[in-house]
Structure formats: C-alpha cells, structure tokens
Amino acid sequence: MQSLSTFPETDRLAQFAQGLADVTDAMAMTYFRKPLEIEAKDDDSPVTQADRAIEAEMRRQITQAFPTHGILGEEQESARLESPHIWVIDPIDGTKSFLSGMPTFGTLIACLSDGTPNLGVISIPPTGERWTGQRGQRTTLNGAPCQTSGRTALADAILYTTSPDNFDATGLAQFETLSEKAAMRRFGGDCYGYGLLASGHVDLLFEMNLHPYDYMALIPVVEGAGGVITDWDGEPLTLASDGKIIAAASAPLHAEALAALRATASFR
C-alpha cells in the first residue's frame, strides 16, 4: 500500500481537507461567543451542539467524497476502521476555550494511510490561521512554509501545556520537572500551541490524557516544520498510544527533555 506522499490522489486529499476546513471554520464562527447548550459527556468534558453539528457535517462530506474511507471522531462512533485510509477528526479542539470565548480553539483533520498520519490540518477559525502538514513536504501556515525555532537547549525553551488540570499527580510532577529547567512556561492553547511550535514561537509541549483525534493531525504539522513529536517514552504516536505527548522544536531538545523526565524517580 502506498503512503499518501506517493499516492496518486494526494493532491485531491489535501484539497479536500482544505475545503473541509473552510466549511468547519465558517460553521464554528456562527456558534462562537453565542449562547450554547452545554452537556457533560461520560468523562465530564463539555460538549455543545456546535461540536456535534460540525462533526456531523465533516462525516457527511468525507463519506460522500470517500465512501470507503474510515472515520474516527470525537462525538460519534467510528466507522470503517478496517479501511487502509482513515480520517481522524476533531470538530472543536479546545471546547473549554470555545465556551469561554477564547479565540484559540481549532478544528483538527488528519488522514491516515495504513495507520500513518500523512496529512494533518490545524485550522484556527477566529484568527484565520491554518497549518497544513503533509509527509515529505514542508509544513505551511496559510500556504507559506514555516519552521520551528530549532532551539536545542531546554534552558532556552518556552514550555507550554494546555492546563495543569489535565495531569494526574505523576504527570504534574513531570511537568514541574521540565518547568524548572525551561526558560518559561505558559498555559492554554490546546491545538493552537502546536501551530505556534511549527511557526517557531513555542519550543516544547507536554501533555497527557489526549486521544487520537486530539493528536493525529498534529504529527505531520510538527514533523514537517522540523520538530519532533512522540509519546513520553520517545515512541511514535499511533492510534493505540496512551495519550501522553511531548513535542519539541528539535531532536536535541526532545532528547534533553526525555532525559530530564527519565532522571526523576516518578517517571513511568
């Protein structure tokens, strides 16, 4: 099976993803900073009619264009996961930001070929920024090539995580370990932080309790900009990964951060 980087329909897939992001951006903005009905899912995370409506439209368009492709999303059951090509989607990554009026939420779109995410889109509707990563090509921001800062030392790095609330006690201790060694730490951003990493503004991201629809689209974007993204053991991310994510602006920075984690007694 060919990867998307050599697959004859690569351009069609990429163009479709861009068109899909155009639709989702427009839909999201019709709901943003408007009164919404909020429900709690089984894991107590919030969901709104915006999440559900946008994902339903994404699924409709994917199924219409690629009826044999699988779909894995946040709000509905997975479909056709036996297919060699799977779209992994998150209609609103950063629902808490979305609900509180913060313009840092985004839509995530990934297309996997035989389990490998070869196409990824991070689209931020309020700001109009869109990062696109395609394996074997340079990541772009709104069509222009972008790259990470290339910083190599943890002492010089700007460290981000979405929220300390997302860590368990061990994970929070690991984050504090990195924080003590980094130049600066900041919170928030959800998927936006990974776009900022790809554009050279953020150097290191460290998170846990993510799902495939939270991280699959990030992989081609980060890697295509010169960064490294893995689990906390340094292993490649897959659909079966445990949701512990570390992304860095360079391979040396990634290696130093992992070494710092492994040197602590609480690392597992």
Automatic annotation (TrEMBL):
Its EC number is 3.1.3.15. Pathway: Amino-acid biosynthesis; L-histidine biosynthesis; L-histidine from 5-phospho-alpha-D-ribose 1-diphosphate: step 8/9. It catalyses: a myo-inositol phosphate + H2O = myo-inositol + phosphate; L-histidinol phosphate + H2O = L-histidinol + phosphate. It comes from the Bacteria. The keyword Metal-binding applies. It is an enzyme of class 3 (hydrolase). One of its GO terms (molecular function) is metal ion binding. One of its GO terms (biological process) is L-histidine biosynthetic process. Its cofactor is Mg(2+). Mg(2+) 1 binds at E74, I92, D214. Keywords: Amino-acid biosynthesis, Histidine biosynthesis, Hydrolase, Magnesium, Metal-binding. Mg(2+) 2 binds at D90, D93. Belongs to the inositol monophosphatase superfamily. This is Histidinol-phosphatase.
